[in-house]
Amino acid sequence: MSRKDRIGELGWIQTDSRDPERLASFWGAVLGVEVETRLGDPPSFVNLAPAGPGLPRVCFQRVPEPKTTKNRLHFDVWVEDVETACRKVEALGAKRRDADDFHEFGYSWRRMSDPEGHEFCLVYDAPRPS
After folding, report:
1. How far is the C-alpha of 38 from the C-alpha of 52, rounded, in Å?
2. pLDDT digits (tens), the chain, 130 positions
């Protein structure tokens, strides 16, 4: 499909959050980006800068309810050294979800949860995304 045939372009990935400032701080540190905008007082929306040209912004919107069930969508974060990455995200408030890592189809990953319990994976031993 050509660009002219697409319906739209992925610009923002919104994540519901009880504390959007806290999650923006966590994910900004993980992705190496700063907060780009805050909307509202206190902020109802906290948007990170894109991690690179043409990439979507990761954003957090305030909601009253806590997370209660498994994510239907999650982030896969490619890392070179899973042990170092795991220690760093745990120091930021993440938790490891399983004792063992997963290995399938030439990929390896470790399941984690961010400070509000949203699942994500640290992916390693895989082709680096371009």
Report:
1. 20
2. 677 888 998 999 999 999 999 999 999 999 999 999 999 999 999 999 999 999 999 999 999 999 999 999 999 999 999 999 999 999 999 999 999 999 999 999 999 999 999 999 999 998 877 7
pTM for the predicted model, two decimal places: 0.91
Q: Residue length, the chain?
A: 130
Q: In what order do the strands lie in the sheet with 12-17?
A: 12-17, 57-62, 45-48, 35-39
